[in-house]
């Protein structure tokens, strides 16, 4: 368990130990300066290495304020928030615990998650990036499960914001009940190729530029029925984020390159 030298450094390992787990804890020596430093959910490679070294059945990493969780299977393969949401949602649906008929996630969640939920007769509601927007939609629609690809998972039956330890316990519950290794549960769906690029600009509003609008329209047409495009400004920096995903990785790369080029030309 990697606690990112943060808020969960004591309560998280202790909770798992009290529940009967053998816990190998890392990232549990906070000094006020080393929070998230090459550890925790933002640096999952540290967790992957530790899982292999300790021959653990599962790895769990929180971030510094313990509201995010990322998991590794026993082979050290990282399991992101989308896969975690799928795992919990399908388990809850099977047991009659999922409320709202689906899951709330952001526009950044992988198309594979949406397809997996749809195949099970469930929906995926998308919001703007940010767990506050996920929570707002959950309240509006009466959903009890939502989150972000980054590992913010909201379990509305228990909390109104992300709680990494609580989310990890849900994953562990499925793992224990199934009796299967985490590697067999980790891949709930095939991830669709996804590419994200950030384009810095100096002035103006690139998204209002005619050339950029035309590039976006052409990209959307090329991806119609096989993928999707998301172009949005950063809320904190002079950046335009260009993300595309689809079944054809070459097509995804191509449309992102075209939109990025148009944005650069405009800004």
Write up this protein.
With 267 residues, this protein is of the alpha+beta class. The protein folds into three domains: 10-78, Alpha-D-Glucose-1,6-Bisphosphate, subunit A, domain 3 (Alpha-D-Glucose-1,6-Bisphosphate, Chain A, domain 3); 81-184, Alpha-D-Glucose-1,6-Bisphosphate, Chain A, domain 3 (3-Layer(aba) Sandwich), CATH 3.40.120.10; 194-266, TATA-Binding Protein (2-Layer Sandwich), CATH 3.30.310. The protein is 39% helix and 18% strand. The chain has a three-stranded antiparallel β-sheet with strand order 1-2-3. It has a three-stranded antiparallel β-sheet with strand order 8-10-9, with helices on one face. A hairpin with a 5-residue loop joins β6 (145-147) and β7 (153-155). α8 packs antiparallel against α9 (249-266). The radius of gyration is 20 Å and the shape is globular.
List keywords for this structure.
267 residues, alpha+beta, Alpha-D-Glucose-1,6-Bisphosphate, Chain A, domain 3, TATA-Binding Protein, 3 domains, three-stranded antiparallel sheet, 9 helices
